[in-house]
Structure formats: structure tokens, C-alpha cells
Description:
alpha+beta, 263 residues, 8 helices
Amino acid sequence: MSHVRLKPSKEFKIDFHPSELDSSNVPEESKKYSQEYLSSNKLAEHENFDIMIMLESKVIYGYDYIYQNKKLILPEVDPITIFFSNAVMSYGRLQHYKIKLLEESSKAGETGKNLDLNLSGDFFQPAINCIINLQASLESFANRVIPEDYLFIDKTGNKIFPTVSYKLYNVVPKIKLIDFKQAKNKKHNKSIDKLIQLRNDIIHLKPAEKTNTGYKGTYREILDFDFIRAFNAVQSYINFYQENLVSECPCGNDYFFDKFKSE
Ligand SMILES: [Zn+2]
């Protein structure tokens, strides 16, 4: 799977080249302000300014950060693309570790094989990273679309505490005026529901079952989880509402997190 592209938090296309800008048009007041800004440790928002970075054909948002008494300008990356990218990079060699875990583990009735917890960790650590980050990309997308002061009420007018699914399927479509659910995307909804359920089970894991612990059911489900379908579903949902936000990089390189021994 190719890695996904990180996107800026906001970008605007421009139809001129930055080199065409004529500094003689800049008002004196702005020049004075920019001198002050450059020679102080003040961050731009103290004066209610945003930082925009001009590139070849677009402008993106950035922010300043003081490092060793110098003011740096950093591009603001869309966190949704960070979450999604984390998920893809955690997926990396997941299939390999799954097969390894299943093939090297002891069979019932067969004794003598070592039970290696690390063999489980090699699969479950990236698998859980993948699920949590993938779900986070959906949840943060919904939260970004829904205004801060949005009132969550049910049909009878009572206030409710919305779940992530409720936000994704009820609130986002209302705000965006199009509905992913009804737009021939039913197959993806099943994967999204499963992803959210699994993520909730992981976060709320409790040793609650009578027979033993409450963990085994979740672990079995993670082993059976179809990650590729979940990637497709989350990407389809997000891109349905914000075109092309999650896209694979055309370079085709596959970058992933893996376990290495420090030398
Ligand atoms: Zn690339």
C-alpha cells in the first residue's frame, strides 16, 4: 500500500507566481509591523495574525515556533492526514506478523513450544495503532465539520451525548447536506461500524467476563479484522465530504513503522 500524502490544514490556489509580487505596493504600516515581528519573540497570533506560506501555485497556513531564540515558520499539517498516515504506516507488515504469530504459536494438546508474548506484540501493537488512528481520523473529521456550538438533541428535543457514529451518520450529513449513508456506500458503513466498535472495545477493555478475562473476544476480532476494507471505507467517507483529503502519494513508496533493534 502506498503511503498517503500529508496535506496542509488549509490551502488556497493562487494564479500568480510569488516572485511577481511587488514589494513597493506593501503599505508602510505593514513593513513596520513585519520589522517588529521579525525582531521580537512575539508569536503572530498575539497581534491576531495568521501566518500564510506562499508556495509556487498555492498559499498554505503555517505557524511560528521559537526554537533557541530563533523564530521558525512551520507548515500546519492537517491532523486527519497524520492519523490516517499513522494507520497506513502501522499496517505496513501486519499481515507478515499475523501469519508469523499464527504459525509459530502452540497448538492445543501440543506442549513444549515457547509461548512468546513478543510474537503477539509484533502483531497486536501495530494492529491496535492502526485501528485507533484510523478511528481517530474519522472522529476528528466529524468534530471539525460540526460547529462548536452545535446542539445535539433527539426527536423529542432532549439533549443527548452523541457517539462518534451518531456524529458521522446523523450530524455530518445534515451540515454538509449530502448523506454518505444513502449514497450507495452501504458496504463501507459496515466496515466503519466495525472499526468504531473495535476501537471502543480496545479502549474500554476490562477483565469483565466470568470465565477468564474480557480480552480474548477483542483479540480474536482484531485477528479477523479486515484492515484493507476499513482503510477503503474511512478514505471513502472522508473524501466523500472533503474531496481528495486522503490520497495516496503518486510516488508509490510504501513507508511503514517496524521494530528494529538499536545497535
Ligand atoms: Zn510519496
